[in-house]
Design a protein that fits this description.
This protein is an alpha+beta fold and 269 residues long. The chain has 5 helices and 19 strands. A 7-stranded mixed β-sheet has the order 3-4-5-6-7-8-9. The chain has a 6-stranded mixed β-sheet with strand order 10-11-12-13-18-19, with no helix packed on it. The mean pLDDT is 96. Bound molecules: zinc ion (2 copies). The site of one zinc ion (ZN) has 4 residues, from loops.
Length: 269
């Protein structure tokens, strides 16, 4: 019997059991929300019968991977192609045969790395298919409810990878929130940021919040710390978790202006 163990609101898959989990701790948290009619569950088989994966080229070495029609949080995962091994930044709940074939045709995955727990989705399925490691900051270990042998928790401020790429711990949105620094993405380097930085619809502001859907700000000391860590990076380009979050060439300037706005407001209380 198939148990409904995939949260319809956030797309997190919980371990198979005799019955559905009582609640989704990811959604039952101040940073998230449950629908008005309460917790809803589905399962992977159901998801795969009425949804597909769509892959879009953003640059010759960067692809966006999304579910259509939109499901749960509606985020994209980002596939970074690199000489010594490809990385999937964040994840989506569905993986279908055409997308497996596509990713394999580009050299498969060496690792999946995460910005934070909202996008863990079905990470163990992905890791099994591509026989790759999963990198999660150790401070977010309490949010991993479906542990798998591929998951590697790392500690500290930075995790150097290969070809000059590195995961940088920013904290803020979650204690273990991270960004991925990819030098080759643009002239001054690119950041893949998940929800650690949130590019506004106008593309003229970058928000850094405890909760985006619930509009809860960060504590001032946490905001300062995240700003400090991002400011240490050189970058001119940012790709976030959603379609419109592509800032090409002027991301450093937008970040600087956004920080000034924060300094003029909440940091002065
Ligand atoms: Zn959920
Ligand atoms: Zn989030």
């Amino acid at each position: 019997m198939t148990i409904n163990n995939l949260c319809k609101t956030c797309g997190t898959e919980y371990p198979q059991g005799d019955e559905s989990p009582k609640t989704c701790p990811i959604c039952d948290d101040d940073r998230q929300y449950l629908p008005e009619n309460g917790q809803q569950w589905t399962n992977y088989n159901e998801l795969s019968t009425n949804h597909k994966v769509v892959i879009t080229e953003l640059t010759p070495v960067l692809y966006a991977i999304k579910i259509e029609p939109a499901f749960a949080l509606g985020q994209r995962a980002l596939l970074v192609l690199s000489e010594q091994g490809n990385i999937l930044w964040d994840c989506i709940p569905l993986l279908d045969e055409p997308s497996i074939e596509f990713i394999r045709s580009k050299g498969g995955l060496k690792a999946i790395a995460f910005s934070h727990p909202h996008y863990y989705s079905t990470m163990n399925r992905w890791a099994e298919v591509f026989d790759c490691s999963v990198y999660i900051h150790q401070l977010d270990e309490p949010w991993v409810f479906n542990s798998g042998s591929s998951i590697q928790f790392w500690r500290g401020d930075e995790k150097p990878l290969w070809d000059g790429m590195q995961i940088v711990h920013t904290g803020g949105h979650f204690p273990g929130s991270c960004i991925l620094k990819v030098d080759g993405l643009s002239a001054k380097g690119g950041l893949l940021c998940g929800d650690s930085l949130y590019v506004a619809r106008s593309k003229r502001h970058i928000a850094i919040m405890y909760s985006y859907p619930n509009q809860i700000p960060l504590l001032a000391n946490e905001l300062k710390e995240t700003i400090r860590k991002v400011s240490e990076q050189e970058f001119d380009t940012i790709y976030g978790a959603f379609d419109w979050q592509n800032l090409k060439g002027n991301a450093g300037e937008v970040f600087k202006n956004s920080v000034e706005r924060y300094q003029e407001s909440c940091l002065q209380f």
